Amino acid sequence: MRRVSATLLIALLLVSSAPLAQAGAKGVISCINADQSMMPASWDLDDQSCVRVDLGELEPGDIISFDLTTDSEIDILMFSVNSISVYQNEQSYRSDSIWERNSVFESFNGEGSWHWTVPDDREMTRWYLVLDNLAHPQDGGGGAQ
């Protein structure tokens, strides 16, 4: 058990010393990772950073909601487990076949409530919510930058 604890501690130290986010031309995006067990949560989302929240495996028809307050523009994005890698690999993710358009809010700023119903066009699926404050090469000036 000590070996597992020590290994986990070392891994956490390595992860915490890594940059919070990187979005070069066709790079790999590294977001701050979170999951539902950490909610409610508060993050300081610096310019050129992001938070990826693992919402877990959700059934069709499940409803997810939360309140959000921000003092700078961010993008609220939703991806299934099958498409999150497109976003993280800096590929073109602005497509209905990649992101969940009904859940996307670009350039959100202020206070609001966000809610989303898991689509019924697929079986139980793992979902990721991304709070994005990155300028992406493929954004074409859209979204928070």
Short descriptors:
five-stranded mixed sheet, 145 residues, alpha+beta, disordered N terminus, Jelly Rolls
Quick synopsis:
The protein contains two helices and five strands; from the N terminus they run αβββαββ. It is of the alpha+beta class.
What does this structure look like?
The protein has 145 residues and is α+β, with helices and mostly antiparallel strands. The chain has one domain: Sandwich (Jelly Rolls). The protein is 14% helix and 36% strand. The chain has two helices and five strands. The chain has helices at 2-17, 84-88, and strands at 32-35, 50-58, 63-80, 105-117, 125-132. It has a five-stranded mixed beta sheet, with no helix packed on it. It is globular. The N and C termini lie far apart (44 Å). The model is unreliable at 1-25 (pLDDT under 50).
